[in-house]
Amino acid sequence: MTSRSAEEHHLRELVVLRRVRDRIDREYARPLNVEALARGANMSAGHLSRRFRRAYGESPYSYLMTRRIERAMALLRRADLSVTEVCFEVGCSSLGTFSTRFHELVGVSPSTYRVRAANTTEGMPACVAKQVTRPIRNQEARLTSPHLT
Fold this sequence. Notes:
This protein is mainly alpha-helical.
């Protein structure tokens, strides 16, 4: 493979990976798994996971869960749904897995987050609130989250 054809192959693969990421962003609340995403990209699950991690710094599953937790944070700030309802609304099928992943990314349980975040974004434009409350990716949550304490 020449360097030009290798570069073209790499660019085509990045387009496919971007489509996978866009699908996760659009369909995060649907039942998605790496196998289904890989089928849609005409790749094996292992190959998709390796290439996605190389391109975006995390696995497709981790990216999906981050999207779900971001949406859950917004729903919890609204306070009109229970934690269980939020869990299912964002596409999680296990409250335990949802709560564990939420705690890993945000640093507190969903219930604690709801109490602490109740008025933290009041009056903020939605785009600013989303940025301020974005979960931390590729690392554990900080011990203290300055925007929630």
